[in-house]
Amino acid sequence: MGDPLYAGDIGLAVVLITLLKVVITFVLLLVSVMMMVWFERKIIADMQHRIGPNRAGPWGILQTLADGIKLFFKEDLLPERAERRVFHIAPLLALVPAFLAFSIIPIGGDFNGGDGTISMFGHRTFVQLADPPIGVLFVLAMSGLGVYGIMLAGWASGSKYPLLGSVRASAQIVSYEAALGLSLAAVLLVTGAVSTHDIVASQAGSGVRTVTNWVVFTVGFVPAITFILAAIAELNRPPFDLVEAEQELVGGFNTEYSSIRFALFYLTEFMNTITMSALFVTLFFGGPAGPLHFSVLPNLWPFVNFLAKLLVFLYFFVWLRGTLPRYRYDQLMDLGWKRLIPLALGWLLLLGAIRLAQDYDWKGGEVAALIVICGLLLVGFALLQLSLRAARRTREDPVDEAVDPYGAPLRSDAGPAARDAKSDGAGSDGVRPVERVF
Question: Which of 61, 196, 224, 349 is paired with 376 by a 20 to 30 Å CA distance?
C-alpha cells in the first residue's frame, strides 16, 4: 500500500512534512540513545549495589550529555600508520546504517480501529519515516553495511590489534546473519507481508486478539528466541561482546580511536540496540498495536504500547549484561553455526509444510507425509548433535606426548637435564608435557 503521504502529487507541503519527520526521527533516536546509556548505567549500578551516575542533572540523567561534551573536546588522535581517509570515514559508515534501519520502524498509529495513519497538516501519513516495499529486508541490508564500518576501522588503524578485533567482528556478524535471516523468513511466511507497517497491521485486533494475534504466538516462539539470540550477537552485547574482549584484544576494532570518533562508535552501539529492540517488538509483539487503547487521545496510546514493550526488551539486554559472563569465541561460533542455524532452518521448513497443508487442504496421506518430514528433520538434528559430541570427545582424548592439546610441539631438552628427566618420570625421549613452544 505504501505511505498515503506520497499517494498523490508531491508538493511543497509533502516535502516539508517529510523533512519534519526526518528531524523528529533523528532527535528522538539521539535522545533515546542518551537515555539508554543512563538507563543501563543506573540498572547495572543497582544490580551491583552501587549508586551510579548521580551528579549531572536530576538522578544523573544528564551524565551522558556531559560525557559527550567531554569527548567532543578531547584531542582527535591519528595513528602514524593509519589510512587517513578510511580512518576518518569508518565511524560514519557504522553510524549511518544504524539510523537508516530505525527509519522503517512504525512507532505509532491506530492499528486496532484504524489503518495506522495520523493527520499532519491536513495530510494522512504513517508514524514512521519510511515504509519501503522491501520492508524488513532493508534492515538486513543496513546491518550488512554496518560491518564495513567496523572492518574498515580496524584495517585503517595501522595496528594488528584493531585488525584482529575487526576480523572477529566481521566473522561474528556474518555468522549470525544467517540465523537472523531465517527467523525473519518465518515471520514473512506467517504474516504474508514484507512491509513493517503491514506486519504490524496483520497483528492488530480487538479485545483478547490484540495479544493472541502477535507473531510470537503464531510462529511458535522458536523464531523469536532465535532472533533475539542472533540480535545479541549482531549487536556485540554481553555475553556475546567478543568484538571488544579487552582481555584479549586491548580494546577491539576501536582501540586507536579517540575524541568524537570514538563517541560515534559508542553512539552506534546503543543506537543499534534500540533499533534491534524496536524491530523485535514490531515483528513479534505487534509494535504500536496493543491492549492499551482508549477513546481519549487515541493517537497517544499506540506510542505508549510501543514504548512499554521497547522498555521491557531494553531492560532484558541490560539484565543479560549484568548477569551472564562472556562466552569464549569458539562457544559463540558453535552456538551460531551448530545450534541456531539448524534450529531456525528446521522450524522454517516445518512452518512451510504447515502453510502448504492449510492452503491445499491436505487430508490423511498428506498429513502423514508431513509427519514423516518432521520426523526426518528431528532425526537429522539428532544425528548432527551426536556427530558434534563425537567430535568433542575426540578433541578431548589424550594426545601423543610430543604435542600438547593445541597441536603445538613440546620442548625436548638436551644435555644432562634431559637425561635426569628420564629418571623423573618423563617420556623415553625426555619430553616434558608441561612446556609449549610458540
Answer: 224
Domain boundaries, the chain: 4-335, 403-436
pLDDT at 43 over 90: yes
- How far apart are the C-alpha atoms of 299 and 414, rounded to whole Å? 83
SS3 letters across 235-294: CCCCCCCHHHCHHHHCCHHHCCCCHHHHHHHHHHHHHHHHHHHHHHHHHHCCCCCCCCCC
Identity of the residue numbered 18: T
Q: Where are the alpha helices (DSSP H) in 294-363?
A: 301-323, 329-334, 341-360
The residue type of 344 is A
Distance (Å, whole) CA 133 – CA 195: 6
- What is the Cα–Cα distance from 99 to 287, expressed in whole angstroms? 18
Cis peptide before 239 (omega within 30 of 0): yes
Model pTM score: 0.82
- DSSP summary character for residue 126: E
> How far apart, in Å, do the first and last CA atoms of the chain sit?
63
Quickly tell me which residue has 576518518 as its cell: 88
Q: Which of 296, 238, 332 is nearest to 40 (CA)?
A: 238
Length, in residues, of the chain = 438
C-alpha 180/C-alpha 235 separation (Å) is 12
Local structure of 431: helix, strand or coil = strand
Residues 216-236: tens digit of each pLDDT: 998 888 999 999 999 998 888
171 vs 243: CA distance, rounded Å: 10
Q: What percentage of the chain reaches a pLDDT higher than 90? A: 21
The amino acid that residue 371 corresponds to is I
Beta carbons of 306 and 288 less than 8 angstroms apart: yes
- Cell numbers describing residue 132: 519501503
Name the one residue in this structure whose C-alpha cell is 527467523: 183
CA–CA separation, 62 vs 57, rounded Å?
A: 5
